[in-house]
Design the sequence.
C-alpha cells in the first residue's frame, strides 16, 4: 500500500471514486466550485491499485486549501497519511497556512482535524443553503440526523 500523486491514477478511476463517494466530482463550498477530479492530490492505493483513500487540494500563494478527503477504510491511518502528504508539499512550496471547510454535521471531520493541529477559525452561517442553489442534491440532513446548514473553516499554520 502506498501514496501516489493523483495524476498517476487513471482519470476514469478518480472520477468514478468521486461519483461513488460524493455523488459527483463537483464540490461546492464557499471558497468556490471545484471539479475534484481535476485538482492536485494524493491517492492511497492497495497492492491491486484499488483506491482506499484520496485527498485533493489547491494552492493560492501562501495558502493551501484541502478540498476533499476520503478514506474508505477507517482506523488505519489512511486519512492521516494523506493529510500529511498535503502538508509536506504545501509547506515545502512556501505555504504558511493550510485551510479546509467542512459542514456543521461532520463531527468526525471536526474531531479528526483538531487532533492533527487544525483550529476552528470561522463559521459561515447558511453557506450550505447557498451551495444547494447550485447543487440541489446536497442533502438537508447529514450525519447523526443533524441538519446541514453551516460551513466551518479550519486552519493549520506551518510549524504547528
Sequence:
Amino acid at each position: 500500500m502506498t501514496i501516489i500523486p493523483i495524476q498517476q491514477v487513471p482519470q476514469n478511476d478518480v472520477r468514478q471514486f468521486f461519483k461513488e463517494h460524493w455523488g459527483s466530482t463537483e464540490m461546492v463550498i464557499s471558497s468556490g466550485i471545484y471539479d475534484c477530479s481535476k485538482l492536485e492530490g494524493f491517492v492511497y492505493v492497495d497492492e491491486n491499485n484499488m483506491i482506499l483513500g484520496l485527498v485533493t487540494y489547491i494552492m493560492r500563494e501562501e495558502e493551501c486549501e484541502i478540498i476533499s478527503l476520503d478514506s474508505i477504510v477507517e482506523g488505519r491511518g489512511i486519512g492521516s497519511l494523506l493529510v500529511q502528504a498535503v502538508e509536506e508539499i504545501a509547506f515545502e512550496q512556501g505555504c504558511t497556512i493550510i485551510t479546509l471547510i467542512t459542514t456543521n454535521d461532520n463531527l468526525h471531520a471536526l474531531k479528526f482535524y483538531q487532533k492533527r493541529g487544525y483550529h476552528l477559525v470561522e463559521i459561515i452561517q447558511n453557506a450550505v443553503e447557498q451551495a444547494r442553489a447550485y447543487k440541489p442534491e446536497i442533502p438537508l440532513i447529514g450525519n447523526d440526523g443533524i441538519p446541514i446548514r453551516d460551513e466551518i473553516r479550519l486552519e493549520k499554520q506551518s510549524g504547528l
User: Anything to note?
Assistant: The longest strand covers residues 51-60. Helices lie at 11-22, 78-92, 107-115, 127-134.
